[in-house]
Amino acid sequence: MTEKGIVTPQKPGSHIADEFRAIKRPILMNIDQQGASIVQNANLIMVTSALPGEGKTFSAINLAMSLASEQDRTVLLVDADVTKANAALELGINDDSPGLIDYLEGAEKDLSNVLIQTSIPKLKVLPAGHLHENATELLASENMKRLMQELSDRYSDRVIVFDSPPLLITTEAAVLANLVGQVVFVVASEQSSKEAVEDAIEYIGNDKIIGLLLNKVRKSPLSKIGYGYGYGYGYGQGYGYGNGYREKTRQSRAGKAQVDQQ
C-alpha cells in the first residue's frame, strides 16, 4: 500500500502522512464539537467528488488510515460506491465479499458478519457488497437510516468514513449526503471544472460542513517538487471557485490547513 501512496503505520513520517494529519484535524474538532458550530452526526464523514478520476477513493482510504492512527479512535471505512467498489479492492478485500447492500436488503442479518478487520488494528471495512439494481432505493431506505444512526451512536470513539460515488454521476451520493454530518469534497487541481464543482456542491445542501480537499497540486519549479494538498471547510452555501478554490461562507471561517508533499 505504501507504494501506492497510501498512509500506513510503516511510514508514519512520510509527507503524505503529515498532510493527512493536517487534513483530519478540523474534522476531529467537529466530531468533538470544538468547531465553530455544533455538527449533528459529525462522526459520519462522506468523501466524494464531482466526477470520477479526481482522487476520492485514494483520499478516503488515506483519511481512514490517518484517523485510525489516533490513540482514542476506531475507524470504519464504508465502501459506498456500490457500482464501482474500489476502496475494498485497494485494501486487498475480495470483491465478492458480502457487504453494505447485502445487509440493507436483508441477505445478511448481523452487521458484524460483513465487517472486515484490516491489518490496521483500529480500522475495519464494510465492503459495498453485491451489485443490486435497486441500490439507490436501498441507500435511501429506512434500513439505511437506522444503520447510519447505529454506526454514529453505538461506539463513542468510532469515526465512519464513506467512500461515496461521484455526485454528478449517480444519485446514491446525494442520498448519502443527507445522512452524514461532514462531507470531504475532493477537487483535482487543473482537472475539476468550476461548473462541475459548483453543480455538485448544490446537491449537498447548505446545512452540511463541507471540506474542500484540493489534490494533485503540482508545485512550480521554484518551489518544492511534487504534489500538495489543501484543505479548507465551511458551509455549503457560498462556496466559490476562481483563482484556485476558496470559501465564501456566511459563517466565519472555521479553519484552514495548507500542506505540501515532496
Looking at this protein, list some descriptive labels.
globular, single chain, Rossmann fold, alpha/beta, disordered C terminus, nine-stranded mixed β-sheet, 262 residues, 11 strands, two-stranded antiparallel sheet
Task: Describe the model.
With 262 residues, the chain is α/β, with parallel strands linked by helices. The protein has a domain at 25-203: P-loop containing nucleotide triphosphate hydrolases (Rossmann fold, 3-Layer(aba) Sandwich), CATH 3.40.50. The protein is built from 8 helices and 11 strands. It has a 9-stranded mixed sheet with strand order 3-4-2-5-1-6-7-8-11. A two-stranded antiparallel ribbon has the order 9-10. A hairpin with an 8-residue loop joins strand 7 and strand 8. Helix 1 (15-31) crosses helix 2. The longest helix has 17 residues, at 15-31. The two termini are 18 Å apart.
How much strand?
Answer: 15-25%
The share of residues in helices is 25-40%
Tell the overall outline: globular
Largest sheet, spatial ordering of strands: 3-4-2-5-1-6-7-8-11
Largest sheet: 9 strands, mixed
Q: What is the annotated CATH architecture of the domain at 25-203?
A: 3-Layer(aba) Sandwich
CATH structural fold name of the domain at 25-203: Rossmann fold
Computed CA radius of gyration, to the nearest angstrom: 17 Å
- SSE run: HEHEHHEEHHEHEHEEEEE
- How many strand elements? 11
Terminal CA distance reads 18 Å
Q: Indicate the low-confidence ranges by residue numbers.
A: 220-228, 235-262
CATH class of the domain at 25-203: Alpha Beta
Count of helical regions: 8
Global structural class: alpha/beta
